[in-house]
Amino acid sequence: MTLAVFDFDGTMIRGDSIVSYLWFARKKGLLSLSYLVRAGLFGALSQAGIVSRQRAKSAALSFRKTLSEAQKTALDQAFAKPLLKQIRPEALSAMKDHRRRGDLVVLLSASTDHYMRYVAQGLPVDRLICSQTDENGRVLRNVRGEEKVMALRELLDELPEEADLSLSTGYGDSASDLPLLRLLGRPYLVNPGRKARHKAAGQIPILSWKDIS
After folding, report:
1. pLDDT surpassing 70 at residue 62
2. Homologous superfamily, domain 3-207
3. H or E element that contains 133
4. Helices and strands (DSSP H and E) totals, the chain
5. Residue 171 phi/psi, 5° resolution?
6. Is 70 exposed, middle or buried (0-12, 13-18, 19+ CB in 10 A)?
7. What confidence category does residue 48 fall into, taking pLDDT thresholds of 50, 70 and 90?
8. Stated pTM of the model
9. Residue with the larger pLDDT of the pair 87 and 41
10. 133 phi and psi, to 5 degrees?
11. Sequence ranges of the domains in the chain
């Protein structure tokens, strides 16, 4: 068995879907402008290494504790529809190609489960691995960096057939995706930034996928 593992944010779409999710919730009247500012502050603190990314993400999603279950479901399903339309054509084509070849297609994302489950339903995906949250939006497991490697290994242990990682393919965009990409025999960096390019040191092929205009 061979795998095709896809990162989501920055790889299949441009930018960070959680940021888009917050703005979408704001447009729906579910959170205030001051809340957005506070979430942005936590995001800046995490970028500076002052607070963990998991804590920042939990702070950003804490508005969910004010919503009913029906509101949460409606928000998440509604957000997934425009998000699917932002997927880069080359990303979707690559997924379909891997599916046709018989690869097990894995969507492996640091984005959170509450909306990624609906995104995955609209894609040719066999398995979804993403960050897990509780009912209040608190992130229980942030699947990023080395955590992606651990999460993928957990999936491998569950599969009925042994996977050949040396013949498996991976797509990512950031330096935090490099541990995962280096685990796979056929890694690709998609539209990487300077940090990812530098850390990859020319060892991983680079793809340029166009954004949806």
Report:
1. yes
2. HAD superfamily/HAD-like (3.40.50.1000)
3. strand 127-133
4. 9, 7
5. -125, 125
6. exposed
7. low
8. 0.92
9. 87
10. -125, 165
11. 3-207
